[in-house]
Amino acid sequence: MRLFLVALQFLTRLPVRVNGFQPAWLNDCVRHFPLVGALVGAVGAAVLLGASQFWPAWIAAVLALTATIALTGGFHEDGLADTLDALGGVVPRDKALAIMKDSRIGSYGALALGLSLLLRAALLAVLASRPLWAAVAAVLTCHAFARAAAVGVMVSLPYGGDAEHAKAKPLALIVAPRNALIALGWCGLLALALGAWGVPLQRLLLAAVAAGAVALMMRQWLKRRLGGYTGDGLGATEQLAEIAVLLAFTAAI
């Protein structure tokens, strides 16, 4: 429970208080990132379904997206913009890391952020007009699986930035594989619960494959360009995995 609260405190704007603090907790709390993602997804799904009763699907989708961004403080969106600004062009590693730390946003970051918001809003609008199970399952799964994808990248790579100046130094240390296994366990429990609710197994498997493919792609990209992951790179992984999972749920198959 303590590690879950640390994860909730780290990934959201919820006013969570944890008595005491040890740096190792921040490193180990990544095992609960998918669980926090499911909570964020539950808020998004509730807003999507509630708003769709009063407004058109596209308005409900934007409101749901706004709710999840407000809950996380745009944490992952910031990582996506910074990563694309840094790696969108052809620059050396040191220059790319410097760009990531720059608070200003460039053309690559603005385009990535704008397209991500547009695509996610469009996908949520499609879900708002579909049966209850499809909308709830997709929103819960995309947030949980996307954060598991980020954990997978974190476990499989060393830290690629300057660990001494990392904003969250404990996350710049080696993350134990057991944390990735526990994170996958949370995703498995979510999939079992949704399957018991009647969500088709093939949709859940396709969503898992989509999230895994994004994790592998980002792992290779970050390894080649930076030699490892960064916090911004993990945020970009989460955002791209969200989109991939939503695409899996809305695909006409």
UniProtKB/TrEMBL annotation:
The protein's Enzyme Commission number: 2.7.8.26
Record keywords: Cell membrane, Cobalamin biosynthesis, Magnesium, Membrane, Transferase, Transmembrane, Transmembrane helix
Transmembrane segments: 30-51, 105-127, 133-159, 180-198, 204-222
Organism domain of life: Bacteria
Pathway linked to the protein: Cofactor biosynthesis; adenosylcobalamin biosynthesis; adenosylcobalamin from cob(II)yrinate a,c-diamide: step 7/7
InterPro entries, per the entry: CobS
Reported cofactor(s): Mg(2+)
Cellular localisation: Cell membrane
EC class: transferase
An example molecular function term from Gene Ontology annotations: adenosylcobinamide-GDP ribazoletransferase activity
Cited Pfam families: CobS
Reaction(s) the record says it catalyses: alpha-ribazole + adenosylcob(III)inamide-GDP = adenosylcob(III)alamin + GMP + H(+); alpha-ribazole 5'-phosphate + adenosylcob(III)inamide-GDP = adenosylcob(III)alamin 5'-phosphate + GMP + H(+)
Topological type in the membrane: Multi-pass membrane protein
NCBIfam families: cobS
Protein family per UniProt: Belongs to the CobS family.
Role played: Joins adenosylcobinamide-GDP and alpha-ribazole to generate adenosylcobalamin (Ado-cobalamin). Also synthesizes adenosylcobalamin 5'-phosphate from adenosylcobinamide-GDP and alpha-ribazole 5'-phosphate.
Protein known as: Adenosylcobinamide-GDP ribazoletransferase
Upper classification of the organism: Bacteria, Pseudomonadati, Pseudomonadota, Betaproteobacteria, Burkholderiales
Gene expressing this chain: cobS
